[in-house]
Design a protein that fits this description.
By secondary structure, the chain is of the alpha+beta class. It has two helices and four strands. The chain has a single domain (4-80), classed as Translation Initiation Factor IF3. It has helices spanning 20-28, 47-57; strands at 9-12, 37-42, 60-67, 74-80.
Length: 82
């Protein structure tokens, strides 16, 4: 996973439960430009499923998923499709 500094946008949804993480992503990610990547930080177990559906139905690609070993947090990298 890249350093957080390499992302154009970081959206932390930790502590939020479905559907709030996805709603926060939908609202915030509008500022992401084509070709740029956003880092989504989530601890909701449904976040991966929701983000995959979001990407399929919008112009985004889920480029990476990484699970933290001890805290249950997940890191998702989304890229605006070209």
């Amino acid at each position: 996973m890249k350093s957080q500094q390499k992302y154009s946008l970081v959206i932390n949804t930790s502590g939020l439960r479905c559907p709030l993480p996805l709603l926060k992503v939908q609202k915030t990610i509008k500022s992401l430009r084509r070709g740029n990547e956003a880092l989504i930080i989530a601890d909701d177990p449904m976040a991966e499923i929701d983000l995959k559906h979001f990407c399929l139905n919008n112009e985004y690609i889920l480029t990476e998923v990484k699970n933290e070993q001890d805290g249950g947090r997940r890191f998702f990298s989304l890229k605006k499709d070209q």
